[in-house]
Amino acid sequence: MGFLKVVPLEEALKVIDSFGLKPQIEEIPLEEALGRVLAEDVKAPIDVPPFDRATVDGYALLSKDTWKASESEPVRLEIVGQINAGDVPTIELKEGQAVGISTGAPLPKGADAVAMLEEVDVEGDELIVYKPYYPQAGVMKAGSDIVKGKEVLKASKKLTFKDTALLSALGFEKVKVFKKPKVAVISTGNEIILPGDELGVGKIYDINGRAITDAIRELGAEAYFLGIAKDDEASLKEKIFEGLKYDMVILSGGASAGVRDLTSSIIEAHGEVFIHGIAIQPGKPTIIGQIQGKPVFGLPGYPTSCLTNFTLLVAPLLRKLLGLKGEHRKVQKKLAFKVFSVKGRRQFLPVKIEGEEAVPILKGSGAVTSFVDADGFIEVPETVEILEEGEEVEVFLF
Ligand SMILES: Nc1nc2c(c(=O)[nH]1)N[C@H]1C(S)=C(S)[C@@H](COP(=O)(O)OP(=O)(O)OC[C@H]3O[C@@H](n4cnc5c(N)ncnc54)[C@H](O)[C@@H]3O)O[C@H]1N2
Ligand code: MOO
Q1: CATH code 2.170.190.11 region(s) in the chain
Q2: Distance 363 CA to ligand 1 centre (A)
Q3: Digit-coded pLDDT (tens) for 161-179
Q4: How many other β-carbons are positioned within 10 Å of the β-carbon of residue 35?
Q5: Which atom of ligand 1 lies closest to the CA of 263?
Q6: What are the φ and ψ backbone dihedral angles of 235, each rounded to 5 degrees?
Q7: Where in the chain is the domain with CATH 3.40.980.10?
Q8: Which of 6, 9, 299, 302 to mutate to test the pocket of ligand 2 (most atoms within 8 A of CB)?
Q9: Architecture of domain 330-397
Q10: Ligand 1 atom closest to Cα of residue 302
């Protein structure tokens, strides 16, 4: 067993593209839409508010009746009833009339302003008005918040509570969103145990399973952690086949060329291995294959290699399936100190951002803190061996 052929990153990305996975759309209740990605542009089907409504408790009236009103010469209007929020107004106001109205109630026909309760007096069925009211005073016009037909949300938007509030205001009971891809996650290795298990000699707690599962969830997709497969054919095969219930399978560990590294031979036995080895550092021992038409990724065991390759290979696929647009977020920083890189391998160096500086983390890909402490990574091309202190670098944020 050995690496079949180490290929450039672009070739690995082409293979992933050739799986031909496309975003799927589903309609879900608004109740479940928070955090989901909108699959279509949304136009307002109604005016908001849907009717001219009172913004204060008081009296609806005809503004022109009040234009001559003053403290010394108040205007008297006849009170002809009361309209409360939720009522259907049947009254049509005529000159010289006013009607009691509560905040949120629809304005009756004829009325074009509302006088606040505190500003008027009532004597019997007479309203005494002491100042002029201009048209629309105390009124929120139909469509003044959102006008019918306006585009309010764009496809590919991850819905926040503000967006779901907007959709609710527009009366959407259901929303079209992109389906969440379902991903099976498997850690492999006789040495890997789960938190809660006793830490025997030679054992280590699982990092990759947790990291990948939660990275997938953070993107908005569904992750199913199937636990740890032992380094034997039966155990690995069982977990991989369990994983084929989902849209794709991600394994970590067992991807390099050691004698125990069975992942590649199992994929080959039941499907195809397209790639076994990518010319990047970290992350060289990576497998991309398929079984029963489902993509199967074998990521390296070293945690930082595993997470880097998840970020470079799997996350873009998941983002595409989730309907998310936009490239990796990048920032320009200055390198905090000189670093040496391996010639002939494209390197992704984890860095921490401190102010205007990108500080390289040199603990190696076997360290969990290489990615936990990192804010992102910088790319060093194959041809570059030295990056100088103070050099401008582009940091791809995690
Ligand atoms: N002869 C060669 N050996 C190795 C090569 C190579 O090119 N030729 N590459 C090295 C590099 S680089 C990497 S990266 C590792 C990756 O190897 P595997 O993918 O086979 O991973 P394992 O051997 O299973 O594990 C490596 C390391 O990571 C620990 N590990 C594995 N899974 C987890 C997990 N879920 N959580 C935490 N830690 C994990 C494992 O215990 C090992 O210490 O191969 C090198 N060897
Ligand atoms: O490829 Mo390993 O992933 O260099 O650390």
Answers
A1: 53-140
A2: 15
A3: 999 999 999 999 999 999 9
A4: 13
A5: 20
A6: -65, -45
A7: 9-24+180-321
A8: 302
A9: Beta Barrel (2.40)
A10: 28
**Atom number, ligand 2, closest to the C-alpha of residue 366:** 5
How far is 189 from 258, CA to CA, in rounded Å? Answer: 12
What is the per-residue pLDDT across 332-387, written as a single tens digit (0 to 9) for each? 999 999 999 877 789 999 999 999 999 999 998 889 999 899 999 999 998 898 99
pLDDT digits (tens, 9 = 90+) for 44-73: 999 999 999 999 999 999 999 999 999 999
Comparing C-alpha atoms, which of 181, 176, 71, 84 is closest to residue 131? 71
Distance (angstroms) between ligand 2 centre and the Cα of 345 equals 11
At CA 166, angle to CA 104 and CA 159, rounded to 5?
160
Surface-to-core class of residue 135, CB atoms within 10 Å of its CB (0-12 exposed, 13-18 middle, 19+ buried) = exposed
Matching residue, tokens 């928070």: 34
Which protein residues are within 6 Å of ligand 1, measured from CB?
Answer: 187, 189, 191-192, 204, 206-209, 252-258, 261, 282, 284-285, 300-303, 305, 365-366
Confidence of residue 262 (pLDDT cuts 50, 70, 90): confident
Amino acid 5: pLDDT: 78
Q: Are strands 42-43 and 182-188 parallel, antiparallel or unpaired?
A: unpaired
| Centroid of ligand 2 to alpha carbon of 203 (angstroms) | 21
Superfamily for domain range 26-48+151-178? Molybdopterin biosynthesis moea protein, domain 2 (3.90.105.10)
C-beta atoms surrounding 277 within 10 Å: 21
For 9-24+180-321, CATH number out of 3.40.980.10, 3.40.50.920, 3.30.70.2750, 3.40.190.10 equals 3.40.980.10
Q: Give CATH for domain 53-140.
A: 2.170.190.11
DSSP 92: B
